[in-house]
Amino acid sequence: MAGNGQGRGGPGGPPPSRRDKRLYFALMSVCIGLFVISWAVVDRYSVLWAIILSVVALAIPPFAAIIANAASATDRRR
Fold this sequence. Notes:
Helix 1 packs antiparallel against helix 2. It contains 3 helices and no strands. The protein starts with 17 loop residues before the first helix and ends with a helix. The radius of gyration is 18 Å and the shape is elongated. The protein is mainly α.
C-alpha cells in the first residue's frame, strides 16, 4: 500500500543524520551547562543574571528539536 508510511525510513521518516545528532547533543549540553552554571556559580554574584541564563537555556531545547527533526521534515515534503 502506497500511503501506509512504510516507505523510505519507516513511519517517522528517515532518521536524523550524524551531523544533526551531534548538533542536537551539543545544543542540549550547552542547555544543561547553562542551568548548572547559572545556579551553581552565577547566583552567588547576581540572581538576575542567573535568571537570565536560565531563560536563555529554556529557549535552546525547541531549536534543538527542530534541528533533530529537520531531515524527516524535508523528506515528508517530497
